[in-house]
Design goal:
This protein has 214 residues and is an alpha/beta fold. The protein folds into 2 domains: 2-153, 2-enoyl-CoA Hydratase, Chain A, domain 1 (Alpha-Beta Complex); 156-204, Lyase 2-enoyl-coa Hydratase, Chain  A, domain 2 (Orthogonal Bundle), CATH 1.10.12. The protein has 10 helices and 9 strands. It has helices spanning 24-27, 32-38, 64-72, 103-107, 109-118, 124-129, 142-154, 158-173, 176-189, 194-204; strands spanning 2-4, 7-9, 17-19, 55-58, 61-63, 75-79, 83-85, 122-123, 135-137. The strands form 2 sheets. Strands 1-2-4-6-9 form a 5-stranded mixed β-sheet. It starts with a strand and ends in a 10-residue tail after the last helix. The relative contact order is 0.12.
């Protein structure tokens, strides 16, 4: 996989795979003490520590660990040939990352249960219908579309972009009442930014804003 600025995509020239998951040949003889002591796959959630919005562009087979990485992206775009699945159960292991935690929030409990309990991959169109991905494009265009989306987001004030991402992520941690309080605090805090003044002045003056990212 390859990450550039805001976009996470496959580094392979072929469109057949985004990622096929962990190395099973390497994992099969691991023991519980070994996995515990070395924190096997503790790094899965590193994407959630990145303050910039991460846009995933997937095509072909998006399985196991690759699917986990994809689901941790803030926005996920898929090529029409994508097959997205979490077949951990077929290996007699439980899924990691977002598979059992954020996936139910994305697609609902019933569909999330079906995906992780059967291990069956779903198509890009199915993923779009249940809200797992935002858009479906031709496999040859999905990365370009992700880059264009990233460029558009990059054109806004960076502090505000980070604050908006944080507000959305807090909705998973807080109840509605606390979430609304947090959202309001973030809204008020934008008025301490030079970019807020510039954005509103540019709107009134009908010109393109020149953000200074502070």
């Amino acid at each position: 996989m390859l990450m550039t600025r805001l976009v996470l995509s496959s580094s392979l020239a072929t469109k057949k795979f985004f990622a096929s998951g962990a190395d099973i040949l390497e994992m099969r003889y691991e023991t519980y003490p070994e996995t515990y002591m070395k924190g096997l796959h503790d790094h899965w959630n590193f994407i959630t520590t990145i303050k910039k919005p991460i846009i995933g562009a997937v095509s072909g087979y998006v399985l196991g660990g690759g699917c986990i990485y994809a689901l941790l992206c803030d926005i996920l775009l898929a090529g029409h040939n994508a097959k997205i699945g979490i077949p951990a159960i077929a290996l007699s292991i439980t899924p990691l990352g977002s598979s059992t935690q954020s996936l139910p929030h994305l697609v609902g409990k019933s569909r999330a249960m079906e995906i992780v309990l059967t291990g069956n991959p779903i198509t890009a169109e199915e993923a779009y219908k249940i809200g797992m991905v935002s858009h479906v494009y031709d496999a040859d265009e999905v990365v370009n579309e992700a880059v264009k989306l990233g460029e558009r987001i990059s054109g806004y004030s960076r502090p505000v972009v980070k604050m908006v991402k944080e507000c959305v992520n807090k909705s998973f941690d807080y109840g509605l009442t606390e979430g609304l309080k947090y959202e309001k605090q973030m809204f008020w805090s934008t008025f301490a930014l030079e970019d807020q003044k510039e954005g509103m002045n540019a709107f009134v003056e009908k010109r393109k804003p020149k953000f200074v990212n502070k």
